[in-house]
Amino acid sequence: MFCLRMRGGLKPALLLLACLTMRAADPAIHWLAGAVEVINVAAGESGVSPAEALVVFAEQEHATMVPPIAGTTRRSGDRLRFEPRFPFTPGVAYRAEFRPAGRPVVVARFRVPVDNAPPSTVVREIYPTARELPENHLKFYVHFSAPMSRGGAYQHLRLQAAGGEPVELPFLELDEELWDPSMTRLTLLIDPGRIKRGVKPLEDIGPVFELGKTYTLTVDAGCRDASDRPLAAEYRRTFRVTAADRSPPDPSNWKVTPPRAGTCEPLVVDFDKPMDHALALRLIRVRGESGNVAGEANLTDAERRWTFVPQHAWPSGAHAVVVATTIEDLAGNNIGKTFDVDLFEGVQRRIATPSVSVAFTVE
Asked: What is the pLDDT of residue 88?
């Protein structure tokens, strides 16, 4: 306690403000956008570990006991911050508990408000964009215009033949849906058991796609975005099935059109068949005499053309297009090895190097 003496004496109000017992503020829980934070956490009172000191539950009816929701807890100064692995769900009630060592548990509750704005999220594109796909086509990429919610995606997907009959269980439905970190791209894998020759699902059920038939993949509007709103509209991709592709990609068959030195013209690579959209953008790079060339890649012409625009003008001299051997075509074949391998053939990868190069000269 301390007192501050003023000329003319101490008035009662000033005495009340000036004579204080100094103590730390109590811990308090705050709900933030997408996170929970505890402030005023004193040293040594955050429990055994941050993850044990701050736990968050989704409230259940009838007081049903459930484990804490998954997430990451970090300490910074006198604060603990919890970030859930998946976004908090609008309309759901949550309870946070801070369990300091030797002090009472601090509890706070909140409910994420429901966003009543009209739906605005749409499917921007489904890759591949080609209108003809091989009978052993492996995967689709569904791109959304905004982050989506995790869980329940498969129930909003339909694959139908031209007559409207549904295809039975076409996708490999994983508990952990294959979303990218931004939650705007969903990867759909065709069940490999209905592609690989010599395995039981293919023999018992048959292939997902049949040569010569036309199919439509539909993402219905019930698919929910991160704000738990439906899509603004359903999206359809229609395509025709051609013969199975069991030939590994061969970059030596690609056509490379070099740019002119001193310009930022694009380097153009024309594939001999469509390539996997995501992998072609990630696994092809350009190398110059002084190392990798920085720039931006793009795919056009139904994933048959790869273009690369450099950050700086091209210098003259030797260059190379460097391709990782794990790149895939639409059937999942990669360099030196096919995906659709007959189990009785025992085919092994013929190329052991991690990448192959296609040389070109900038003049």
From this structure: 85
